[in-house]
## 1
Amino acid sequence: MIVDSVDRRIFAEELAVEAGKLALSYRGRQDLDVRSKGVLDWVTEADLAAERLIRCRIGESFPLGRFLGEEEGGDVPPAGAGHVRRVVDPIDGTTCFVSGLPSWCVSIACVGESGHPFLGVIRDPEGAETFSALEGHRLTISGRGISVPKRGITEGLVGLSESGLRAWDALAGEVLIRESGGWSTSFMRDGSLATSKPVPAANRGSVAALWDLADGVLEGWSRPDQHNGQ
């Protein structure tokens, strides 16, 4: 059984690569099964196969862990319920996948017993790159350490926000942003994996401006420390 956080990171990186290869094997199939879940929201047999692969591999290595996948669900206990939870989107960007576009990825996040996401892995199968971040170990891209310069883009105003995100949309990216020196709101701020939420994110130089714009309208926010990215 894998228990070390660094081992968890390696495991998640290798698993994301494996799932990405499986998804890629479905590309270009004329008989690909595609079903609509809503407006511009699709699920394909590739999504289901990749999620089942990930679920199986995680179950083999972490039999006591909890799992939540976009397509076939899982358990969504409240924060503090015990055991690390893996939150997975087997194909983030299914519309692009179905349309033959390269902008899709495999996303795996680990959430600790307290409800804090501490590991995020995003695999770009088309570009053959793996974006990975373990809390306290900074961001890597395909094993290469990435450092954010003290001057340049971090001093400008750079930010984004998206509403209605689900846990599998946000958690891996949240860890990547934090470990690269950026800032975002905590998806788990209400202690729930089940609810959808808006998630703003920005570079350190934008945080004060972002807060002034929000002006405390969103309930439960506290002013972030723009110097340490928290």
## 2
Amino acid sequence: MPSSSLSRGLLSLPLIFTLTPSVARAALVIENRLTRLEANTQFGYIGGLNTQLDSKTYSSLIADLQVSLSGSNSGEGALGDGSWIANFNYTHFQDLTWNSQGWEANGSTDLFAFVGDQGVAAVDAQQGNRLELGFRVDAPTTYTFSGVFTDLAEIHLDQSVGNGLWTPLANPVPGTFGIELTLAPGSYRLLASGGGFHDGSTGMGSAWTAKLTAVPEPSTWALGFTGLMGVGAVIGFPRTRRPLN
């Protein structure tokens, strides 16, 4: 095939520019984690109460990333000229995931207590579902800090200023939130907590979700070639054969 024909064929090869978002410079490293789950309970009857603290603590960065704490008790009986009945149950749950582009954490607290006659049952788990997550950013990166949380829950994002001191970056109010932040190289922490209470007549639990995600940079053009299949037709190979001598 003549070189001029090949050149014309190559020039006719379609060039396709593909728009591909990229996340550059995002380099997030989890440095430490402290999960604390706890609940204080009272159970029994007037004149005969048992008080108990149930708690668990986790700090591993490779294990126990999905944890829970739960408990319950119930009872009834005669008491003088009357009787008593009481029961309670509670469950804390926490889940944590991350990669070099960000992290996501979730927590929930569900509890209930019931009493009758002279029974006593109460669950106090105020801020009983807590997470402190420390992380480092190695390059200036823009992130979206988002999530949702209920009453009796709190979420804070802080930046280290050295000597064990922190300055707040985001303190959202209960509800859904979404904040875009450009984080400079340095150390940061997430503080999230939730809890609840129930005294046998009234009470409530809580839930929270927080997420930090690197924002894709403005889309960049990536040059791609297509037409590899059937390239002979594209670059103009002759469609007829020469007769054999």
